[in-house]
Here is the input.
Amino acid sequence: MTPPAAEDAAAAAAFGASDWEALREAARDAMSRAYAPYSGYPVGVAARVDDGRTVTGCNVENASYGLSLCAECGLVSTLQATGGGRLTHFTCVDGAGAILVPCGRCRQLLYEFGGPELLLETPDGLRTLDAMLPQAFGPQHLG
Here is the structure.
């Protein structure tokens, strides 16, 4: 079995620094359209799809706070609306453009569409979703 750090390094080598910068720029662009009047905390996300497309999303708040949508929800909706596919690389930024990690709920959402090998950019470097959401529940558990 290959150690997780080696797997992360191999996946990162195939997706270069300029690719990550382009993904961050797409996330920042999406973040600029976030609707966050209550928290004042806009978030943007971007991901590469296995067919080479980039999909994005931003958070959308609601006065009834429980109805607010994380940026990852918008990203997955865009993914499906534009043809589906598997997410391969993901980044998330705040209003200042700093890299964030998805919350637990959103990690579970990303697992459905990217699986354990989805590569996430984090403040501490690149990590697989499997490393960020160990022993995840997925479609394979439903029989």
Summary: The chain has five helices and five strands. The first strand starts at residue 44 and ends at 49.
